[in-house]
Amino acid sequence: MEQARQMLQHHFGYDSFRNGQAQIIQQTLQGQSSLCVMPTGGGKSICYQIPALMLEGLTLVISPLISLMQDQVEALRAANIPAAYINSTLSVQEVDETMQLASAGYLKLLYIAPERLESATFLQALSYLSVPLLAVDEAHCISQWGHDFRPSYRAIQKLFTLWPQKPTVLALTATATPAVCEDIRQLLEIDEQSAVITGFARDNLAFSVLIGENKERYIKNYLTKNKLEAGIIYAATRKAVDAIYDVLSRSGESVAKYHAGLAEEMRMSEQERFLKDEARIMVATNAFGMGIDKSNVRFVIHYQMPRNMESYYQEAGRAGRDGLPSACILLYASGDVQTQRFLIEQTQDASRITQELVKLQTMVDYCHTEGCLQNAILLYFGEKAGEPCGRCGNCNDGREVKDVTVDAQKVLACVVRMGQKFGKTMVAQVLIGSKNQKMTEFGFARLSTYGILKGQYSSKDVSSFIEFLIAEGLLAVKHGTYPTIYVSEEGKAVLLGNRKVMRKEAVIVRKLADNDPLFEHLRALRKQIADEEQVPPFVVFSDKTLRELCEQKPM
Ligand code: ADP
Ligand code: MG
Ligand code: ZN
Hints:
By secondary structure, the protein is an alpha/beta fold.
């Protein structure tokens, strides 16, 4: 490993390995096939580039994108590492020349597109080379469950028997759910214990979801407020990309665009402009970005939600690769769900539609989640949630979080004393001390006289508190003739005093009368903050924000 560290210093100019890199490199050098799951920008490339330098022979890198290969090979050559690529941009003669260089032992790394492996002649040419290591970049492309399945990735398996000895395999990806990881491991024959999964959490990203914004105005304002920052705006369709591009360039922004409907040349030059900081903003469909290494992207705005969480995290994750604070903003409108549904139904083959629609639903759930958005993402990818991040929109929505442990204990204890066989309405009635006939009928008259939540809560409040305890997993629902509730294992921990329960204060929705003084007040504030005259008749605020707003005097 000492030698590996020297290579890192000498060729790449870095002093120390990042989280996970050393372990992957060590396993790879020992001939152990591994799966490396690291966030975008985590430094996956070095995990195979350093072993490639240290191993005898040639490392083959399977990579799905032409632009990606070209960038990587250029960077390697700049670092004095002999590397080349073979893809459809090369002439037959250039391919021959590259293969000759490879067989003469002049190359350490050779990048190839997976489609090449479908050609028997090409495989035969490869069979004469000595290949100790096979790196599979963007390895999720091999899985049907992944968000970007490429059938030609399956041809990688042909390489396992091409040489007398199967090469060591290193599969790399940034976004893989547990199911995708398992798929990758099976198809590429990697042991479970050889998976190195570093945290998904990107501590410099602040996620937020904005519902019901005027999107165009929001973006214009955002760009004005953040004048010098580079960023990407993703839209779901080419048409939307063109429209946003037109609006922004007319208002004088330095903007580039990218989608599959543009000619290859145009796409390349637009991408270059953005990468070289000549254009500050890139407006694009999801066709843009895989493998792009632009470190100073300060924001990624989704004009429309993407079709699933994997795509979202990958696209949003293009912000802040340099580790500096960056924003990932999703502008949600319910109509966009229809757009994605339509796109899924148009483009997916019938057998995958249901699966894709289920994934779309989890994307919608994310948009409506009340808790920490960072944690919601971690949970989706099968990681444990940590403390709330404190950076995301939900952590900063101004709603106070209160300790409701004691009230939770009261509810849970009541459920236990009632024998854990009633529905939530009945429990709520006992809790507020109802005197109705059912209490006597079921023998709760005495219990209910205590009405342990009486006075503090209305029966509706208690019901919603019970819903909250169910959502938190402290109470569980048993579905029989009618649903009953019981205390879960987690709930028992609360009863025993081993777990605290925190709850956000409720949001107040208030309909303002035309002559409500608050209306004038809000109008003035809005004008000042967002330059908007119109105030919608419904205001949704937390208690705290409302109090603050009322205290604040417009200038
Ligand atoms: P990934 O493929 O995981 O998205 P890359 O391999 O493209 O990420 O690396 C992202 C950036 O991090 C690159 O600019 C790379 O040079 C840099 N990097 C990689 N390893 C290290 C390290 N150990 N120390 C500092 N920077 C690193
Ligand atoms: Mg990469
Ligand atoms: Zn958060």
